[in-house]
Amino acid sequence: MDYTQITPEEEAEMLDTIGVSSVDELFEAVPESIRCTEVLDLPPALSELELQRALREMADHNHGAHDMICFMGAGAYDHFSPVLIDQLISRGEFLTAYTPYQSEASQGSLQAFFEFQTQVARIAGLDIANASLYDGATAAAEAVLLALNITGKRRVLVADTVHPDTRTVIQSYLSDLPAEYIQLPSHEGRISAETVRSHADNDTAAVIIQSPNIWGLVEDSKGCFDATHEQDKTLAVAIFNPIAAALMKSPGACGADIATAEGQPLGVPLSLGGPYLGLFAARDRFLRKMPGRLIGQTTDAEGRRCFCLTLQTREQHIRGAKATSNVCTNQGLLALRATMFMTTLGTRGLREMAEQCYHKAHYLADQIVQLPGYSLTFDGPFFNEFCVSCPDDVTKIVEAGKRRGIMVGVASGGRRMGRIGKPDELIVAVTEKRTKKEMDLLVNLLSGFSVPSDEVPA
After folding, report:
1. Tens of pLDDT along 36-71?
2. Contact assessment for residue 424 and residue 389, using Cβ atoms and an 8 Å cutoff
3. Of all helices (H) and strands (E), which one includes residue 335?
4. pTM, whole model, 2 decimals?
5. pLDDT grade, residue 100 (50/70/90)?
6. What angle do CA 119, 275, 172 make, to 5 degrees?
7. How does DSSP classify residue 174?
8. From 3.40.50.970, 2.102.10.10, 1.20.1250.20, 3.90.1150.10, which CATH number describes the 69-80+347-447 domain?
9. Chain-centroid distance, C-alpha 250
């Protein structure tokens, strides 16, 4: 624990330097009505040793993927990240750097973001990518805004198999705009091309499909996007998993005009839910309408290779009210971390990671469905995530798993997931980190619920 002590003498010196005699005098400019004048009910002062012990005891109450077997997913995944990345990202020039407002003076950062853009564009199978956005949900919402701006149309079709958080953010973005949000109904956990065809019309700006979707199923993206393009100028927006893209057809190969993703699987720790980073790639004809920042490569006056901030469609700069988005920065540190991750693993490493996720998930699914009362909720291809219909309330299974040190998955009928599923449905995710022993422990736990019972096994 880093700690910098301020002695009474140092405090007095600082107050004297700024010309006040006390801390109370320092805050006299703040109206007393909004000042907190109550004496804080703090415990007695502790020695450094006692404080460290007390903090450790409090921290021991926190449990998660760092000390439990994690089968949770639904948007955030427990992937392996080489220790090399933690070592490099902790360097002072990376860890303490802020958004480069005098960007051309930050050639190292710009080069890293340029490499990041190149890697994301290749994974997405599209022409260009920006230097990241805040997270996957806002990236999807920005794709919707781009489609509205490009096409001049006002209807947006969003599959109900898109993550509920992403759908909520899109709806929030559109709430004060002259745009109509339409939710496409799924059948057996997937969206059909016929559903897209029957809902799209001449005023449809975009169709948004997530694959693998919230249930872990692989959508017929090619068919859905072919149906989308039957309407003139309507854009196809893909929400994808960057690890799955190493094994499956890329969004671009499936006909997507824009592709967005949550970048957390690319070496970003779970970190209690964030911060994460959004990936955004598109066809080159949308270059000047893309949100956020885009780094370009050029040469300086002496002919040397260098990098520059080519586009920054932000309201603070010359575009002003004509800015395409109010996104004015990028997740610099996390984009750099993702760049390190993709570079360290390389093409073969990413594919091997994806293959392990796929095969381990299918092994676990095969074992679970052999248990009496268990079945896959949906019949369809999946990557590393699947939904299981259980013979008992999932809440009981989740609590039993916690007691055994296993995070068994995400309850699709819970409040966290917007109650999109039923009380007996469990979304299970498997990454390359899970071992056969760990998966067999989960199967053993689930077997205790094969016959519905009001009692949770010990």
Report:
1. 778 888 889 899 899 899 999 999 998 999 999 999
2. yes
3. helix 332-369
4. 0.88
5. low
6. 95
7. H
8. 3.90.1150.10
9. 18
